[in-house]
Please model this.
Amino acid sequence: MTQKIALVTGGTGGIGTAICRALADAGVKVVAGYNSGGNHEKARAWQEEQKQDGYDILVAYGDVTDEESCAACIRTVEEVAGGTVDILVNNAGITRDGTFRKMSWEQWNQVLSANLDSMFHMTRLVINPMLENGWGRVINISSVNAQKGQFGQCNYSAAKAGIHGFTKALAQEVAAKGVTVNTVSQGMY
Ligand SMILES: NC(=O)c1ccc[n+]([C@@H]2O[C@H](COP(=O)([O-])OP(=O)(O)OC[C@H]3O[C@@H](n4cnc5c(N)ncnc54)[C@H](OP(=O)(O)O)[C@@H]3O)[C@@H](O)[C@H]2O)c1
Model:
């Protein structure tokens, strides 16, 4: 059986690191997506840390808010991993908290863009190869705040709730063709 390839966006972050390691433990070839404002050294240092702990994880730069940058990221993944993405974990996300009365359009837009538009950009780039292969897994990281709301997080709660709708609709379109789409909604840690 050929080794599956996974891309974990925000893979060098807190939860992303745990996801990368869990996938690697399961025998998957893992690529961690990173942005870090273009600080490639930081990603290389993270990669080295993983190596010290026995994890051989690849890295690929990309800005999940930007369609072109996502396309470049996927090209890098295919190059370094030697194949198309079988498992996509849409994990990258940010918060820009503030009560709604004080929230700027920029705070709203940045959070919607990083947490929700990112789903569109990244998933669009991997869904066709998954369907052609008859196998794929898309795992979207949401939050309990999607269902319950959170004071000071109208932007984040809306974005994370949007992920649920995206997940359920896309799952209906692709499940019969061997591609599952799910959301994981964790609480605070
Ligand atoms: N921590 C919690 O309690 C909690 C609870 C519920 C849900 N979540 C969700 O879990 C996910 C991971 O959160 P975390 O706690 O691990 O946070 P984190 O450590 O801050 O990680 C977030 C990751 O997202 C990446 N990212 C942000 N903007 C990006 C962009 N424009 N392009 C590419 N990557 C970008 C960051 O990459 P760089 O650092 O390289 O820029 C970072 O690795 C998020 O979606 C978050 O909303 C977290």
In short: The pocket of NAP is lined by residues 9-10, 12-16, 34-36, 62-65, 91-94, 114, 141, 143, 186, 188-189 (CB under 6 Å). The radius of gyration is 16 Å. The chain has six helices and six strands. The longest strand covers residues 29-34.
